[in-house]
């Protein structure tokens, strides 16, 4: 066989759609899988457990209720999501570990930045986890402050970053 025959097929393209109330269980699962599957180099098990408390379905549903939330899908199945709060804060960005590095986070960020710009936002901010810091840096977000937040009695670090949007 030639090299072309042995190379893996490209991942199917992701599609976007608005989040629906019935998505909460799968979004909670993506959030948990993302935390436990992608953040181990930056956060210890206690920190991951405390962070994952936000994946409680009731808590997540309440948090997403007043946010513009987009869901990325592959073959009709959700694989990631992003939430925009008050048209100025990227509040949540999570991608399932199975599709990490395949452009899903970029697709979600591109869309939410375009929507915020269309709605009149001049800047967007994010409290980026240490794991997501490089993604946001590559997208033109600039670090403004280093933070420590307490969740479930455990301290976690993140960085507030901001990006100027170009209409």
Automatic annotation (TrEMBL):
CDD domains: NAT_SF. Residues 14-166 form the N-acetyltransferase domain. InterPro entries: Acyl_CoA_acyltransferase, GNAT_dom, N-acetyltrans/Recomb-assoc. Keywords: Transferase. One of its GO terms (molecular function) is acyltransferase activity, transferring groups other than amino-acyl groups. Transmembrane segments: none annotated. SUPFAM superfamilies: Acyl-CoA N-acyltransferases (Nat). It comes from the Bacteria. This is GNAT family N-acetyltransferase.
